[in-house]
Structures are given as C-alpha cells and as structure tokens.
Design a protein that fits this description.
single chain; Isoleucyl-tRNA Synthetase, Domain 1; 6 domains; RNA-binding; aminoacyl-trna synthetase; ATP-binding; ATP binding; zinc ion binding
Amino acid sequence: MYSEYDHLNLPKIDQAILEFWEKEEIFDKSVEGRDPDNAFVFYEGPPSANGKPGIHHVMARAIKDIICRYHSMKGKRVERKGGWDTHGLPVELQVEKELGITKDDIGNKISVAAYNAHCRETVMKYKSVWDDLTVKMGYWVDLDDPYITFKNEYIETVWYLLKKFYTKNLLYKGYTIQPYSPGAGTGLSTHELNMPGAYRDVTDTTVVAQFQVVRDDTSDFLWDDMEDRTDLYLLAWTTTPWTLPSNTALAVGPAINYVRIRTMNPYTGIPIRVILAESLISKWFDPAGEHGDFGGYKAGDKTVPWVREAEWKGSELDGVRYEQLLPYLQPDDGDAFRVLVDAFVTTEDGTGVVHLAPSFGADDRRVAQKYGIGSLTMVDKKGKFVEEAGEFAGRYVKDYQDEGDQFTAVDIDIAVKLKKENKAFNIQKYVHSYPHCWRTDKPILYYPLDSWFIRSTAMKERLVELNKTINWKPASTGEGRFGNWLENLQDWNLSRSRFWGIPLPIWRTADGSEEKCIGSIEELDKEIAVANESLGLEQSVPEDLHRPYIDEIVLVSESGEPMKRETDLIDVWFDSGSMPYAQWHYPFENEEKFKENYPADFISEGVDQTRGWFFTLHAIAGMLFDSVAFKNVISTGLVLDKNGQKMSKRHGNAIDPFKTLSEKGADATRWYMISNAQPWDNLKFDLAGIDEVSRKFFGTLYNTYSFFALYANIDKFKYEEPDMTWEERPEIDRWILSSLHTLTKEVDELFGAYEPMQAARKIMYFVDDQLSNWYVRLCRRRFWKGEYGADKIAAYQTLYECLTTTAKLIAPIAPFFGEWLYKNLNDVSQLEPYESVHLSLMPTVKEDQIDQALEERMGYAKRISSLGLSLRKKEQIRVRQPLQKIILPVLDPRFEAQVRAVEDLILAEINVKQIQYVTDTSGIIKKSIRPNFKTLGRRMGKNMKAAAALINQLGQEEIAEIEKSGGYQLQIDGEDYALTLEDFIIGSEDIEGWMVAKDDEITVALDIQLSSDLMAEGIARELVNRIQNLRKEAEYEVTDRIEVEMSRNATVLPAVEKFSAYIKEEVLADELIITENLEGQEVELIDGEKIKILLHKN
RNA sequence: AGUCCCGUAGCUCAGCUGGUUAGAGCGCUACACUGAUAAUGUAGAGGUCCGCAGUUCAAGUCUGCGCGGGACUACCA
C-alpha cells in the first residue's frame, strides 16, 4: 500500500527522513558506495564557530549541498570533509570582551598562555549550534572528522607551505606603511579599520605649502619667458601638516596640465610665481583678481591679483628640484627633494601637486621607492616628533596623551611658522573623514612597520593565466572583480602582531643577518637538538605550537649565534587557503588521499570571499603547485531582509534560521532561496515567499502524489505489470513522458552547469503546469473509471514514472521531500534496488521518447482549449453545458494534422462535440499578415521600414495569392526583393459572422446554438454534479454503490430519459427513480430550478 | 575613489546570439469549475523596461555618461 496522509506537513517529513538517514547511515552509504576513482572533489570553506549561524549560512550551504548531492546522484564519490576556522582577530576580540580586558593587558594582567587557552575554548563555543543547523537543514558534510586550524597537524602543514615559499625566495621581510594606533601601540588590520564608526568626520588644519623651485639646468625652462627673477614655487596641499617635516618629494600627474601663475603671497604680500594644475586654478584664485593691480596690492587685501603666464604637461616637470620646506633632517639615501611623475595624482582636490612623505602614506612610499628616494620619519611610534625636529621636538601630532583642551595642535604651529616664512600660500580648516582606532578613539597614523610578505607580484602572470581556466559563476566575478584584483596584485602582507594564530616559523639572529625557516616538527626537533648542544639548553618541541611556548625556543645559527623567533603570527587567511593540503596533514600523512582530492572540482562561498578565501586558495596553489585549487566556483550573494536591508541583530530584522526551518521545513526554505534569485544575486528574504513555495510547489506535488496513492491503492497498482509499450500508450501519456524527458535532460544539464535556479524553475513549471494542471486534470477519469485494464495501467505507470523521476530531480534541492516521495513510491513497487533517493542515480534521458511535434500539438490543445473557455465565459455558458462545435481556421495542413491528433482532448476539455476545420477557400476567414522581421531585416536593411508598411496593408486577395504561389515580389526604392512564405507571418484574424477569440496566430469561434439534446445532456451533467456533491456530503466511500430518488420536474425529465445510463454510471447508481412528493434534499439545478434528491447506499 | 553585481507590473523575478502586442507567479477585482478542493480555470485592472545620449532599418537587450541600491578593495595630497 502507498502511504496516505491527511495533509502536507513538511517539518514532520524532515523529522522522519532525518531519523531514517541517521539510522540507515545514508550519507555514509552515499559516499562509500561510490568508486574512489570516480571522485567529485568538494572543499568546505571553514566557518568560524565563535558566532551563531544566520539564515545566510543556510543559503550558502544549500548551494554547496545541491551541487554535491547532484554529483553523488551522477555516480560520483563526493567526500565532504568539514572544517573549522579557529584563529584570527574576531576570536581575540570576543575573548577580550568576555574577559573585560584590552590588548595591553595581555602579558600583564593575563599571561599569553592563559589568553590563548581561552581563545581555544571560545572558538568552539557554538559548534553544537552549528552542527545542529547542519543536520536540520539537510546539509551533508562530514562532521565526525573535520579539519581544525589550531591543531598541530594543521599548523605543521602550514609551516611546510611557508617553508616552500621561503625556499622559492617568495617570502621576505619588508617595510610598509600600515594603519597604526600610537595610543594602543599596535598596527591595525583593515578589518579593524572597517569596523562601524572607525571613519569619522574631523576638522583638520590644511596648508597649501610653497616649495621653492631650485633654478638649475633641469628647471631653467620654467623661467624662459620671465622678465624679472621672481622666486618660483610649487604649490602642494596637505591635510596633515605634521607630515611636512618628513617631506622628501613632490608628485605630479604625467598627463595633467600645469600652469605658472604670477601673484602675491596673501600673508606676506611678497610677489611670487607658483605652479599648480590648470583645472584647479579656480579653487585657489578669485576670478576677480585676474589681471588685477599688482602695484596697489598690500598684504591682507581681500582680492589677490594674479595672471596666468605659461603652461606645461606634468611629464615635463620630471626631476625638477626644490628647496626642502622644513630642513630639520635629510634622508641619507636617495636623491630627495625632486618632482616625481606618477599617474596616481589626480585633480580631484588640492593643487595637482602632491606632497610626499614616504613614511606616512602608502602611495607616497610606493612612488618614492619607484624613484629610489628615501624617507624621513620625523614622528616616533608614540606619535610625537623626534628630537631632531627643532622647535617641534617632543610634541604629539594628535592628542594621543588625552590632554583634551590642554592639547595644542602642532599642525597650527607649523602653519603659522610657514606663514611667517613666506612658505604658506593658503591655510584653512577642512572637514573630512579619517579613520580612528576603535579602541583608543584616536586618529590613526599611517606608519612604516616591519612585516613579512609573500612575493605574489613575482608570480602575477601565472596566477592570472591559471585564473582563466577557472569556471566562475557568475563569470563576471572571475573576470572582473577577481581578475582585476590579480592584475593589480600587491605583495601579500602575512604579518599580524597578535597572539592567537599560527606563529611564523622563522628564527633570526639579533642583527637579522642569519635566519632559518622551519618546515616541519621533525626539522624543529633537529634544530632544537643542535641548539641545545651548542647553547647548553634543555629545550624540546612544545606540545602546543602556539605562542607563548614556541616563542621560548631559541635556535642557533650557522655561525653559532642564538636565534629568536620572529614574533609575528600569520594572516588567518593563509590558514584557510592552506586547507586543501592541511586538511589531510599533507605531506606528512595521506599523500594518496591528497592527490585524489586535489584540486577541487567545486567550491562556493559568499562573493565577499573573492579577495579572501578564493584568493588565498588560488595564490597558494598557483605559486607553490602551479595549479588551480578549484575548477568551478559559485560566489553567492548576500541575504537581505525583505526590504533589501542588510540583516543585523541591531535592526531586529535578522531571521532566526532554526525557527524558520522548524516552522516552514528545510525543503521549502531551500527551494525558496534557490528558485527565487540567482545564487550570486542578493536575495531579498521574505518568509511569505517560503509559504508560497510550500503551498504552490510542494502542495501541488503532494496533491499529485495523494491522488495517485488514493487510486493506486484502490486498484492495487504496484507496478507489477511489464511496461506498456509506446504504441499502447495514449497521446497524453506520450506527451507527459516526452515533457518529462525533456525536463530531465534540461535539469541534468543545468545542475551540471551550476545553474540550480534555472533547474528549480523548470521543475516547478513541469510539476505545476504540465503534470498537475494538464496531465492529471485531463486524466482524472482514467484513474477512477472503468476496469483495471491496459489504459488504466498505462495511466498509473505514466504518473508513477513522472513522480519518481520528479523525486530524483528535486532531491538535490529538496532532499527531504525528494526522499519522502521516492520512498513512498519505490518502497511499494521495488522497481529500483535503492533504499534512498540519494543512493539512486539521476534518471537517464530517454531520447527516443522526446517528441517535439507532440509537445507542439499539446501546446495547441492547451491554447485552443483556453480560447474555447474564454469564449464560454464571454457568452456566459457553463462548461457543463455541451455545445455542438467550435470553428477553427486552418493555417496550413500541418497545423490541421497536429490539432486533429489532440482533438479528443480539446473536445473533452471544453465540452464540445466537434471541431469544424475551415480553410480559406471557404471565404469566411479573414487573415492577417505581418512581416517576419527576423528573416527580412538582414536582407532589407534600410528599406525595412517601408517594407513593413507595405506588407501590413496587404489585402485578403493578396494574402491568398501569397499563400497560393508561395512568394511575393516586393519593390522598394527601385530594388526588387523576392520574398517567400517564410518572410511573412500569416494568421487568422476573424471569422465572418462569429464571435472569435484569438491568441497570436490561432483563432477560435464557438457555436452556441443549443438543441434539445444538448440541453438535456447539460442538465444530466448538472444532475451528476449535484448527486456527487450529496455523496460527498454523506461521506460515502468513492467505491460505494447507491440508489437515487428524484422528485418529478419538467426540466429534468428529458435528461433522465435520455441520459439515465450515463448518470448512473457516473455516480455509481444501480437505480435512478423518479418519485412523486419525495422527502429529500432540495438542491438548485440551474436558473433557479429546484429539485429534491434522496440517496441510499446499496 | 576603483572594480563588480543589481534596477522590467503593488511584490518576487523571467526575458536566449538585438526582430515589432514585454511575460510568469503572488497580491487585487469579478465570474466559473469541483470524486486532487487551503487546489484550478477565465476575464479585468496594473509597465516612461531607472534617466540621458549614441550605434542600428530595428534597443528591455549593444556602447557611453549619469542616478539609485548593494558588495569588495582603498582612503590618498
């Protein structure tokens, strides 16, 4: 017996299926049962379990699950090793919050050992919550043996990889400009800079400084047309005057136009000439002063006179020297105080000349290095000027001492000094947004810090090339966002001055002249032994490779000097990018396993991981193994609330995934997410959408199954008979099977092409429109009428195949309902040897059953039926009232043949006795004609418009002529065009004397004349309907036989006389009796006509 | 600031290599149907396809410039 249910309850199905999976270990079987040599490799991007999962995790993991389940059902072995990301700043921050400490307290109030121990605990805080979600949403991943990034084995592999970089000379120590908080005494990560509230508007004193040009061979041309010998200055703007003493160069844009302007210094009144970008003149000069009175100008006057004198391209200024602005100290390397040319300079603001302080700006440093110019670092790590800074020595550049009102801004003093010395052209307050340290609330500095880098720039070309072999979904992320990122690749800054993370395995002598990089525990052990002997120590490899234990190890150099570990940790992104190797502890263990599972066929994460995990996987694989790490990748979008806002606890619009899953069911949630938007588009998550999916899609599929189960149980259909041959099946069965296999083919291709949304939508269309609303609706009678014979068996077999195939097609997206449906069917029929749909194989496409002509003519049937019903509606004639005929203009012989093949279906659907096919020879059809732009456009080109006008006005005779001769000569603009039938779209327009309905090229007319026979039959059908309703009210079984008594009624009599056999058969009545004065149920028939009916069960 | 995604009916989204009446579902209104019934059918209302310019015989579709939402990277005078 097929199981029958009272109603659809998705959460209940989830539970039952989960129990089944667990008891029978279906996941294990789905992996173990497949051949290891036929693997589909998936990498799990490790989540961090120190926070709770959100609804977006359901989305991300649904995608992963769908692709993996699909390939498993294609016969692949899909191992899915889970993993946990355990290091990094978020963990540290959480611990600090829990303990109520700051970074400064680490090592003082709390030991590093205790701190790290706490991190280790915290990081798995919500592991059980995550595991719970994984199970409940039906995400199949191996949770028993996950990789964990803080384990020694994992760290050892990471060390192995780092050593590989080191020996390839791709790992180096360098000096870069990084965000730095003098208050906290630490560098900040970009993550910290991007924390909410980090950027704040501040008011700074800005200065346009005058850098005096040195007149020499290089710069002489700047004076060429000058009569007097006024001093010449380059104008450069800065929002950070405190960096001016550290200035070592100026930069101009190569393509920017610069002008020389004669004017006066507004503070000193001294005549000067200045150079700045042409497009920024108006920013600094009042138009009223142009060609003003130089002679009458006094310092402080409002309008400063100026005149434009000469102009040059930025590239011409290359190498021009200038006097150091504030000469306290000079760099001891490089040829400083020159004009440099670089494209980063813009004319957005400032003067188009950029002041470069290479110690305090990343761009500054980059350009200075390009030209080999050194730097000055006139501010120390506390944020105050160094001793050499003259009158400013010891002063803090910002209020880092928390002096509040007592703090006097050194920026202002610098500005005043410049003003006095005729070196300031303009001083003003300026409001802009500037990053602040989230911990001290003070503005950060950009400061040069020591860091370890991976020389990714050295391998850039190869990484770009390898990327081109990766299949990105969507492609634009791969080419655009990721591709551009690779094109502009910078060296990868690995260093983090933190505590909880993988320690950099590099030991150095005090002077940095000798160093060692350790690539394994065994190597460390050997080095320790050497050091112990040489230095007389008794060290051993620590049990925990984290700080502080690893810091205590002292090694010895070749020359016998002691070496200490570089205290840096490495970027956690390196951890996750190492997972293809480290999850197997390669190369120390599992070499075979690793090779079988490298690279990945598929990965998927949020698009925000493009420069995160996607990059680190790619970089490590490309640089060390000359391979991609993954062949296919889906980068998923965000999950927003239904109004398109980001979900957050703060806004109270976050959706609880557990509540959603338990109330709506996992499958409805998954199906909704997948079918609603492309995975890479942002999803506007609306709970009402899940209800819709659940009602419309799962409800319909459930109803279809219930319908099948109800009658299959009555008829004891268990699919024991041999398959009906193609010839034995009626047209409609062939059609639904053809559609089914077309669907199977498309869905298979779409899953294979990583397009789950398209697959889901195709399935929905099939289930709702084709299977339920057409096949089942039209075939209902076949299931409950008549004997258990060939036609009935064909119907059962067909519907069974549709349902079981659908179960397989939906299984990747809706694993629970797919399983439920499959088992309900297959457990009874035992047609397939699988205990689970997830152990079965995707259905094979029966190409020979796909019949496009058949699908086309069924399309005609649907459209013609729809037009017929539409006409009935207009004429207000009930569908139960049979009509004599519809009239259908025949477009061409093929059309007629196609419609004739499905005629019975149309007649039954719209309750009409016959179709009258009329050809144009009868003269009652008016035809319409349109040009076929697709075939004509290319040939006609410019004449297309004229041609369309001509064709549109062709009359009936001409259309008839075209149809007869199959062609037409068109003349436009003296040109002849020979058109064929293909170049026209001819349809039927009207049938004279009839009310018609049209749908594109098809037109239908309905004969609404009623004969007495038709009326009687109409009444008979009304009677059947009323009796059926009464049967239902009386709660008779669908198989009960009955006896019917009716009151005498003039309208009803002819119907009973002529159609009593029909009525009896329809309502399963043995007797149909007319009784005078019957005491029965009164029901209304039509037009207010009433009749009494009484039923007895026989 | 740069790169990428998105912008089509009240809502969620289709719309293939450009081809002439721009679609679906939900929601709304009315009517019908009923041995699947929290389903279904028919009809109706609802669109400057974000804007502007260009290419073309022809643009929702291609190009450019904007606008709005989002993500990432950066924040620099």
